[in-house]
Design a protein that fits this description.
The chain is built from 17 helices and no strands. Helix content is 73%, strand content 0%.
Length: 324
């Protein structure tokens, strides 16, 4: 299949613009990365966002989600023309409320053109990530219910296919770019999975009421809130250990990871301050808080000590809540 285009700068301009439309947070964090990695990670995020959009479409039956996810994966892997995915997907999502995400789907050819300009090793890693995520989420489509997932094991599997695999992908991309990090992470690859899972667990706890309102729960039904917070806290401990393995000269990568980590810590801290909440907005960090922490990372990411102190201080309430 031919993904070449005569105007790659226009493709990259679209990627940057749509990234800001579909995710304010990642539009803030991804540009912190070194330019060669920024393009790859931004592209990966958009591919994953397409899968998430299919998953979030409440009006679609699990069978329809499975079909569209498979078409998307086949298009990414070059097995079918990309139009064979775009047309039926837009038709199935014609009543979907988020116009920015629909625009992204309509521009899937643009996103794939950018993908095929990335280094071959990164392309292979992205294909693996998208395959695991697409197939894994299709598996969980049939399990979604208001009762939640069966147990902790299934919960961690879900968090792996949604986000843990992204942690693995980031590690591959970072390692391809930085041999010293590749050396540091060797034998500790599980920390990469924990990093992704921690962010996903935070999202699940934050969005639990909104999910319940649409008849879905991704929490394990046999665990209490404090037990779930305990799991999330331990994943955050491992996440910080992951970040500390990134060499200090790779400041952009450290800041990218610490920003995502810190926002998760602050969000979970906010959740522990409320006995209950009925809307995601109640436990969503304000724009002012996000920007303040963004500025803080410009100093903190240079220092292992400051990052550890931040987690010890801001995560203290979370640690107590997780052992209650």
């Amino acid at each position: 299949m031919n993904y070449h285009d005569e105007n790659p700068s226009a493709d990259l301009a679209y990627q940057k613009t749509i990234l800001g439309s579909v995710s304010r947070t990642f539009a803030l964090t991804i540009p912190l990365l070194p330019p060669p990695i920024e393009k790859v990670v931004g592209n990966t995020y958009l591919l994953c966002r397409v899968i998430d959009t299919i998953e979030d479409a409440a009006e679609l039956a699990p069978e329809a989600k499975y079909h569209l996810s498979k078409l998307f994966l086949d298009a990414v892997l070059g097995k079918i023309p990309v139009t064979s995915f775009v047309s039926p997907c837009l038709e199935a999502l014609k009543n979907y409320p988020n116009q920015d995400e629909l625009d992204l789907i309509s521009h899937t050819p643009t996103v794939l053109r950018i993908l095929h300009t990335c280094p071959t090793n990164d392309q292979l890693a992205i294909a693996r990530c998208v395959s695991i995520m697409s197939e894994g989420m299709s598996h969980f489509h049939s399990k979604q219910s208001q009762n939640g997932l069966s147990d902790l094991n299934e919960f961690e599997k879900y968090c792996y296919v949604v986000a843990g695999v992204v942690g693995e992908l980031l590690t591959t991309i970072f390692s391809n770019y930085c041999p010293e990090f590749a050396k540091n992470i060797k034998g500790q690859e599980a920390l990469a999975i924990a990093f992704g899972q921690a962010l996903q667990m935070t999202n699940i706890l934050k969005d639990s009421e909104a999910d319940q309102a649409r008849g879905v729960s991704w929490k394990p039904r046999d665990m209490s809130e404090s037990e779930l917070l305990q799991v999330a806290y331990q994943k955050l401990v491992e996440s910080l250990n992951y970040i500390l393995l990134i060499p200090k000269p790779e400041f952009g990568i450290r800041r990218f990871c610490f920003l995502a980590f810190g926002l998760a810590v602050m969000t979970l801290n906010l959740i522990t301050k409320r006995d209950s909440f009925s809307q995601t907005q109640e436990v969503k960090l304000s724009r002012k808080m996000v920007l303040a922490f963004y500025s803080f990372t410009s100093i903190a990411a240079n220092s292992n000590l400051i990052m550890k102190l931040f987690f010890r201080l801001v995560g203290a309430r979370l640690k107590r809540a997780s052992t209650a």
